[in-house]
Amino acid sequence: MITIHPLISYQATQELIAKVPQSTDAEFNEACDVASQTYKTWREVPISTRDRIAEAITLEHGKSLIDAKGDVFRGYEVVEHAASFTSLAQGESLENVARGVDLYSYRVPLGVTAGICPFNFPAMVPLWMYPLAITLGNTYVLKPSEKVAGAANILIDLLKESGVPDGVVNVVQGGAPTVTNICTHKDIRAISFVGGDKAGEYIYTTGSAHGKRVQSNMGAKNHAIVMPDADKEDTINALIGACFGSTGQRCMAISVAVIVGDAQQWIPEIVERSRKLTIGPGSGNYDIAPLITKESKQRVENLIGTAEKQGAKLLLDGRGVVVKGYEKGNFVGQSVIDHVSPGMSVYDEEIFGPVMVIVRANTLQEAIDLINSNKYGNGTAIFTKNGHVARKFQHEIEATQIGINLPIPVPLPMFSFTGGKGSFRGVSNFYGKGAVSFYTQWKTITARWKEETDEAQKMQTHFPTMK
């Protein structure tokens, strides 16, 4: 396998711990060539034969060790599910559609496929991609984020140790030039992407323009509705965990709390509990770890700074946090902003940091209408004890991944990750049955076997009707 072992920087101290190379065009083309050649043999392999990582994630990304272990575990779930793809990849058949004519279809691999990964889940997202693609008979070109490239190399080393042949999965490194190469290379048939809007739109439009399938999961602004009848303790804990976990750097974070009616009386308690969260380096399993880069820290603090200027109320300000011993770290503390409305920067933009935005609503319908008017549709949640309210919510809401009395409703691998609206470009979603559709194409055969006593088929120039 072609792997380029990168080296990276540490968020808590700004010390340089490694450098990530930019793959040259020659190296990139070599990876694609190897994948193309290996595909010829890999496609014929039957489907049925096909806490070092967490520590590397904590070092490169900065997230807490326990969160990094969750990152790895959710990826492994998809790997385990890939072992059951013999049933999901089955074809279809219909006998005797006409006299002596049978019709059957089966799924075949596409060829060389590729994945472009984000920084926030260095293990989970790659494991959403290549295990399913190669299980279905494709070869793969994987580009990890240049910010956290080391974890992917460990995964590929483990893949090699497991007996997967060289050339089935190939790692390329770098930034925008590598992305463009993936979008335009003639041998690549399909591209998976998870990341921000700008990159996602570019990859979708450029890849599609070059005849490739693209599944592009992009930005999000996930809302949770809090009804007055909700379990108070459970709801507050869930909101805080879903908002500030992973330092808010996840596309399924609940970053907007839409608090309805009398539940607004809980806001002071939400603030006080949030204030008690601990801040420190990921190696210490603190509640809030550093952000990925110095630029991310500056962007989050700048957005917090716009809140009161635009009419919101800053109840908890996490700017200017300094952690002893890690004074140069990319730390932003937990922040809570109340009386937010659409049109404010902290509402309209995906902050991707430890910031809870609170919008007040008078009724359930007002809350639903607010969420549906947002351009994103990745995930949403509601907290209530009323079954009718929950059913109305799940029926009317336009976001496509819904939690009822739980936040961050990321589906298990046997389902698909089904982000929608402005959060997704493409047709087939990640993992589950969506991955089978994305990484394969149908081959359909119509076969006629006439008996010796049958008359010869008469010549005809019209379109056959199977009669």
List keywords for this structure.
single chain, 467 residues, alpha/beta, Aldehyde Dehydrogenase, Chain A, domain 1, Aldehyde Dehydrogenase, Chain A, domain 2, 2 domains, six-stranded mixed sheet, 15 helices, 18 strands, 35% helix, 19% strand
Please sum up the structure shown:
InterPro entries: Ald_DH/histidinol_DH (IPR016161), Ald_DH_C (IPR016163), Ald_DH_CS_CYS (IPR016160), Ald_DH_N (IPR016162), Aldehyde_DH_dom (IPR015590), MeMal-semiAld_DH (IPR010061). This protein is of the alpha/beta class. Helix content is 35%, strand content 19%.
CATH architecture of the largest domain: 3-Layer(aba) Sandwich
Q: Name the shape in a single word.
A: globular
Low-confidence stretches: none
Q: Radius of gyration over alpha carbons?
A: 25 Å
Main beta sheet: strand number and arrangement? 7 strands, mixed
Structural class of the helices, strands and pairings?
Answer: alpha/beta
User: For this structure, what is the CATH class of the largest domain?
Assistant: Alpha Beta
